[in-house]
Amino acid sequence: MEFEWLDSNVVEETIEIVLVFDEHGSILFGNKSAREKLEYREDELSKYNMTQIFRQEFQKEDGGYFPFDKEKLFGKTEIAMYRKNSSCFLANIRFFLLERRGLYYLLAEDISGQKDTEARIRQLKEEGENNRRLRNEFTANVTHELRTPVNGIKGHVTTLLDKIVDEEDRRTLEVILYCCDNMSAIINNILDFSKMEAGKFTIEEKEFDFYKMMDKVIATHVATISKKELQLRVYVDEKIPQYIIGDELRLNQILNNLLSNAVKFTSVGYITIDVNKTMQINDEVELFFMVKDSGIGISKEEQDRLFESFSQVDASITRRFGGTGLGLSITKQLVEMMHGTIHVESQKGKGSTFSFYVKLHTGQNMEEAQERNEIYQKWSSFTAEAEDSGKGEYFNFGDEENKCEIKKRMEKLVLSIELGAWDKAETLAATIKSLVENGDSDLKRVVLRMEMAIRKENYEKSMEMHAKLKEALTERLGEF
User: Fold this and answer.
1) Least buried of 52, 91, 190, 365, by fewest C-beta within 10 Å?
2) pTM exceeding 0.70
3) pLDDT at 325 over 70
4) Spatial CB neighbours of 307, under 8 Å, sequence gap ≥ 6
5) According to the model, what pLDDT value does residue 430 have?
6) Nearest to 289 by CA among 339, 336, 208, 343
7) pLDDT at 330
8) Distance in angstroms (rounded) separating the CA atoms of residues 436 and 439
9) Phi, psi of 345 (to 5 degrees)
10) What values do phi and psi take at 198, rounded to 5?
């Protein structure tokens, strides 16, 4: 049968199934997709009825068919369509009335593949959730089991420290304690990450003394900062209320993570901590923190993945400084849970500035007459003030500040070797090595040999290499 009122090319080649039928269900026309999907030859479809295509709706128990009733199909969207070989597929269908001719036509799309994909996605999602649950349970159990022996070692070492007099033995025990603390920090990071993934991590709201918290944070790192001969600059805005309502433990954790990184990646120069109140509306307080250092810095490309889980900027950093790569990922999530954001500004070899804000509460309300715009201060002004100070090019070999730092470290190094303070001497040698990083290869070889001699606690060789290094530096930098 010819249908002049249809554009045969469009209808014939469309990917949708097109069927035209009358009120009795007799099929008058089927396009190419209909014939291929239903597996009928071109001359066969007109011999069949819609009841044989939609068998589930019209099948009798004895195998025959009920008379065609279009009402059984109209209003449905997803329905099974049967092929000639009695197999079927799920289709998305639409019916239309051709009023002038008293005929009907159907558009159908095979969605069996889509449904299979959706089912597979659901299955994979369920499997993923189950695997995540098992992994989190495993992580929780393992971290608990690891914490027990670590705490046991720390307890016994602490007891031994009270009894040991020999300085070298005490230093060995202190190294063991330091390793235990590192292991505890890694265990805690893994456990926190596991809780966050499982959605079981919550922020507590308790009142705490903000200034005492800051004192604890600084006290935690001041010994390491002093050991590395770094300058520590701290500024805490006096406008911040003394008592804050929030999660002291997690705020402490954020600052400790950022300060630990700053100390770890800074061998010379300074570390700055800057805390300001940027806004207060009634009992809600917004605090802005900056941790700035003169360390190794991070390139623009590397900053993009800095806050990803298990990520460090490159593999050499993991080998040289250690760590799981979870600290900044957890820090970012903690900041966001406190309704804030975290940012980084850095240049390779010129230090880094990590800044974040969090929203906390206080019982000390502002006076109603004080408007918001009187309290609000732009964070960029704080950043600009911090940028103005300590911009020295410590690592540009030959610059005045670089030369001064090398000279200062060399003087302290020879004193440390003379006194047999090998741990201190090794730290100073590592700092000097970073300060001459941009020097020539011969100079770097002398530094490396000196560092190796110090590690072996060889007094004669260490003093010899110190003298050679001083001579090499004098040749390159003038009077030294």
Assistant:
1) 365
2) no
3) no
4) 328, 329, 331, 332, 342
5) 84
6) 343
7) 82
8) 5
9) -125, 125
10) -85, -5
Q: What are 372's two structure tokens?
A: 């918001």
Reported as type and span, the H/E element at residue 105 is strand 103-110
pLDDT tens digit sequence for 209-231: 999 889 888 888 888 888 888 88
Give CATH superfamily name and number for 8-110: PAS domain (3.30.450.20)
The pLDDT value recorded for residue 382 is 43
Alpha-carbon separation of residue 322 from 186, 260, 316, 357 (angstroms): 10, 12, 9, 28
Half-sphere exposure of 166 (CA within 13 A, CB side): 5
pLDDT at position 105 over 60:
yes
Q: What are phi and psi of 325, to 5 degrees?
A: 80, 15
Q: What does the alpha-carbon distance between residue 285 and residue 215 come to, in Å, rounded to a whole number?
A: 20
Tell me whether strands 352-361 and 78-82 are parallel, antiparallel or unpaired: unpaired
d(CA 128, CA 338): 28
Amino acid symbol at 429: A
Fill in the amino acid letter for 285: V
pLDDT digits (tens, 9 = 90+) for 128-142: 788 777 777 777 777
Domain coordinates in residue numbering, the chain: 8-110, 115-198, 206-388, 400-477
CA 122, 124, 128: angle at the middle one, nearest 5? 115
Token pair belonging to 108: 């159908």
Residue 461 has pLDDT above 70, yes or no: yes
Class of CATH domain 206-388: alpha beta
Q: What is the average per-residue pLDDT within 239-245?
A: 92
Token output for 235: 């500024």
Rg (CA), the chain: 37
Residue 180: other Cβ atoms inside 10 A: 19
Residue type, position 106, single letter: L
Buried-exposed string 69-85: b where 16+ CB fall within 10 A, e elsewhere: eeebbeeeeebebbeee
Q: How confident is the model at residue 343 (pLDDT cuts 50, 70, 90)?
A: very high
- Distance, in Å, from the CA atom of 362 to the CA atom of 420, rounded to the nearest integer, reads 52
- Whether 190 and 182 have beta carbons less than 8 Å apart is answered as no
CA distances from 423 to 35, 107, 455 (A): 85, 81, 8
DSSP string, 235-248: EE-TTS-SEEEE-H
